[in-house]
Amino acid sequence: MRGPRVVAAVDGSGGSKAALRFALEDAARRGVPVEAVIAYRPPELWVDYDGIGSPEERRLHDTLRSQGEETVRAAIDEAAREFDGPLPEVQVRASLGSPADALIRESQGADLLVVGSRGHGGFHTMLLGSTSMQCAMHAACPVTVVHSTEAHSHRLRLHRERQDQRPGERRGRADASSEAEPPG
């Protein structure tokens, strides 16, 4: 699918479901179709073996592609149940490669690329994950990053934990300084 469209990144996560809902709403408002994209890759273990053979390799790719497409269709069906009004046309695409590479490639000629944010991973201070960051930096169209309620809840929990730790740290320093002898 090329031409005016909204590309949505879908992987079955809460963030991607939120991104798909946003993409459907935006596309319906604009009167353009949605291209729902999932990336897939063969297991890295397979890359190490030269003796796999072409028929087995083709079956693996076909299986991974169809599983990805099923994941996208399930997300579309779920979003459709919650959608007000008629759905825009939706095309499903399973694309070989890393998520960032596939989405950047699919962004060519699109009106908008919509990606979800699953949370912070190991870096609690980052607002974007590696895929959304790569898309924001390299996509050929504007990018919208949609935070899921799960990611939002996760960020709130982390914020509260940091806030709970700070008063204890301050209290510890204040207690230590009050125990010190006054200057004499």
Quaternary state of the chains: single chain
Query: Strand tally, please?
Result: 5
Secondary structural class = alpha/beta
How many individual helices? 6
Binned, the helix content reads 40-55%
Give a structural overview.
By secondary structure, the chain is of the alpha/beta class. Helix content is 53%, strand content 16%. It has a 5-stranded parallel beta sheet, with helices on both faces. Helix 1 links the parallel strand 1 and strand 2. Helix 4 packs parallel to helix 5. The longest helix is centred in the last third of the chain and has 31 residues. The chain is globular and about 60 Å long. About 9% of the residues have low confidence.
Task: Chart the SSEs and their pairings.
Blueprint: E1 6-9, H1 14-30, E2 34-40, H2 44-47, H3 54-82, E3 90-96, H4 99-106, E4 112-117, H5 130-138, E5 143-147, H6 149-179
Parallel strand pairs: 1-2, 1-4, 2-3, 4-5
Helix pairs in contact: 4-5
